[in-house]
Amino acid sequence: MSAVFGSVLGFAISIFYPHHFTGYLGRHKICGSKLIMTHAMNAERASKLCRYKPLFIGVMTSANHLDTRAKGLNKTWASELPGAVEYFVGNAKSFENKSKQLPIRVLREVNDNEYPPQKKVMAMLKYMYKNYIDEYQWFMRADDDVYVRTDELKRYLQNLDGFGDTVIGQGGIGKRPKVHKLGLVKHECYCLGGPGVIMSGSVLRKIGPNLDRCLNEMVSNHEDVELGRCIRKYAGISCLWAEEAKELFQQVYDHQEKAYHGNLDSPKINKALTLHPVKDPAYMFRLHYHFTSLKLFRLYYHGYKTNGILKTTKEILSGKINSTSFASRSRNTDFFFQANSSSKLAWEFITQKNKNSASMKHYNLKSHSTLRYLGGMQKTVGTIMYDLNEKFRKTSRRETKSKISFENIQYGYLRINPKYGVQCQLSLSIKMPHPPLKYRWAPSRPIHHWAQQDQAFLALQGRIQAEIERETVHFIVPLSKKLKEFTRFLASLKDAFLIYSEPIAVLIVYFPESFSSTEYIQLINKYQQEFPQTEFQWLQMPGSFNRARALQQGVEYLRTSSLVFFSDVDLVFQPEFVYRCRGNTIRGKQVYMPLMFGQYNPDIVYFNKSIPNTNFVYTKSAGRWRIHSYGPVCIYGSDVRAIGGLNTNIKGWGQEDVDFANRVMRRGLTIFRAPDQGIVHVYHQHIPCDESLKSKRSSCAMATIGTYAPNTEAVDYLIAKHYIE
Predict the structure, then answer these.
(1) For a Cys staple, 72 with which of 196, 281, 314, 371, CB 3.0–4.6 Å?
(2) Edge-to-edge strands, sheet with 633-636
(3) Measured at the alpha carbon of residue 315, what is the angle toward residues 313 and 319, in degrees to the nearest 5?
(4) Alpha carbon of residue 180 to chain centroid
(5) E strands of 8-119, at which residues?
(6) In which element (H, E) is residue 228 found?
(7) Dihedral of CA 176/182/187/188: which sign?
(8) Beta-strand relationship, 595-599 and 623-625
(9) Contact (CB, 8 A) for 277 and 143
């Protein structure tokens, strides 16, 4: 019993106090000096660690970039740095009013726009040496377009000797045309400036007094080369030349303006300590969001594992389980054991489409959307291909940029264990890189690679939302000469909301257009008497029907604080719609524009069939989700006024809803869009397209055709009616 408890306790302690070790780089080829690794520390060095702060980063920037790149850095990774960061600019006139927002250091002896920036780099390091050499253990020279993963960098540096002579970064020897023009000796390399250069305080202490000499002894126009030469001459070491350093300090060479615009969830990016270049501050925030999400996921998973260990420890101490059952449970915590033990779960065969096997479930495995659907297989395939290319690169006898390419998935097996996770086994068709030129006669052929991937589920997470206040939803309904539809609309309000005493209000904005409003008002009075707690209001407008005018007049008629819903008389509702209207609308932040289900012409789709006795049928033959319609809107009156209201000058068919959505986005409000089964647009004959529409006429015609029926039902109808043979 004591042995089992000791094992559990030791494992629990290892979870609470993890030791993060980086991979040992000593076996890699090194230029000049070996990188010293240390995990044991004597008392003298321990006292030094207590005296020194971890890291100081000097960011080389300019006055023109203080409000863009520098501010982006300061609001992302710089705010989480375990140390300090300062921004260095040259002598310029446009930064004085910005110095209060950022920690800026002005290098008076350097021109701010001077390029190449050798003087600025040397002056920055000189300032760091004179002012901070006795305060920090590590120093980093960085550009204003580099992203630094501060938490991972801190863990990495904790395992290095910060009191010896150490310099870290991505090693380089220059591009081939310039290799012999940089003045480097054989086996000498420098750290690329873009991904950042990190040096120990000992190195800065040696080169600090000699930076002016290094500036006078320059051979090239490259500041990172000259810094590397200076470190080599006065500290006696060179940058580390290691394959792993290229992965940790990443530099994108091709299409730099689009660097990190694509998929970020890849093993290569997730392994990096620094990423360069990030020219647009918006993508700096995108990277920060990605890595923050990754960190939160790891923290959650760590807490999930720790909670399981504590629970098991409690059960052992209370005597609920013995050592035998504990050993079995420890083995069963492995996902592979748990999932494979569920032998009753059938594997689903997935393959290319095959006409001769109609009974099987097939997917288009060449489609990226299908890969996303099949349990996140796009990420799975990406991980497999990354691992294959890493092995190929490290085992290749020659330097090559060629990669193993993914062709498609030939076939595979998939099963989902609802309790544990997803398992898939795949036969991948991959293509090896071309052989050397002398073997060009041997073509590159696709080969097959068998891969297995298992993705475990984490514990289910839930969030209990406080009950939303049952705020009154004001339905604004533009109306003109549609008595039958208006009767159906009020009946739907009654069935969905009124009989449940749901707090709603109805404002009818009516355009008489020479038609009497008597019957409409009588109908409203009837409902007002039946449901006195609900407010029905009537507003009459002059002129021809104009939806935008009606909605704008309705918003101005109501209070600014009102939650309004832009409705149509052709809509019918389910009770849950108003809850989504309230919950998905946030004053000053978010507008709810539900995707409504629009019915097809029932006379066509149900020709020779019985028509359903309900409007709430969501099949492909019954209708479609109207993704291009922005008509139904839940929004606060104050937000409508803030964006300038609706464009009441738009005449003819449509466009007022799209224009309003554009105004919402320009104002900076979020549009929440999602299919809502609680709102259905009942079919009606489309308004004839006006001859004066010109450019909009084709769109109007296509919209009219789209309301009739899907292709299959339309053809069946035309054949049955003998319009076509």
Answers:
(1) 281
(2) 535-540, 504-510, 473-479, 563-566, 633-636, 590-592, 670-672
(3) 120
(4) 44
(5) 53-60, 83-91, 104-111
(6) helix 223-235
(7) negative
(8) antiparallel
(9) yes
Strand partners, 591: 671
Kindly give, in sequence order, each residue whose CB lies less than 8 Å from that of residue 440, ignoring residues fewer than 6 positions away. Answer: 434
Write the single-letter amino acid at 137.
Answer: Q
625 burial (CB, 10 Å; 0-12 / 13-18 / 19+) is middle
Q: How far apart are CA 325 and CA 329, in angstroms?
A: 6
- The pTM score is 0.52
- For the stretch 699-706, contacts whose Cβ atoms lie closer than 8 Å and that sit 24 or more positions apart, written own/partner, are 699/654, 700/653, 700/654, 703/653, 703/654, 706/624
Q: How far apart are CA 578 and CA 583, in angstroms?
A: 8
Tokens of 547: 């939806």
Q: Residues 413-418: contacts with CB within 8 Å, 24+ apart? A: 413/347, 413/348, 413/349, 413/350, 414/347, 414/348, 414/350, 414/374, 414/375, 415/345, 415/346, 415/347, 415/348, 416/345, 416/375, 417/338, 417/339, 417/342, 417/345
Q: 3-state DSSP call for residue 49?
A: helix
What is the CB neighbour count within 10 angstroms for residue 76? 22
Cis peptide before 277 (omega within 30 of 0): yes
Question: Which residue, 638, 497, 658, 478, is CA-closest to 569?
Answer: 478
Ranges assigned E (strand) in 261-351: 274-276, 348-351
pLDDT for position 619: 85
Catalogue all structural domains in the chain, each as residue range(s) with its CATH number.
30-282 (3.90.550.50), 340-394+401-456 (no CATH), 473-720 (3.90.550.10)
Angle subtended at Cα 209 by Cα 206 and Cα 210, rounded to the nearest 5 degrees? 85
Q: Residues in the chain with pLDDT < 50?
A: 11, 13, 15-41, 330-334, 336-337, 342, 354-366, 368-369, 372-373, 375, 437-442, 459-467, 693
524, amino acid identity: I
Query: Could you give the CA distance from residue 374 to residue 379 in angstroms, rounded to a whole number?
Result: 10
Classify strands 348-351 and 197-200 as parallel, antiparallel or unpaired: unpaired
Contacts of residue 79, Cβ cutoff 8 Å, sequence gap at least 6: none
- Mind giving me the DSSP string for 444-501? --EEEEEEEEEEE-------PPPPPP-PPEEEEEEESS-HHHHHHHHHHHHHHTGGGT
CB neighbours of residue 507 within 10 Å = 22
141 phi, psi to nearest 5 deg: -100, 125
Strand partners, 349: 413
Angle between helices 323-332 and 281-317 (to 10 degrees): 160
**3-class DSSP assignment, residue 351:** strand
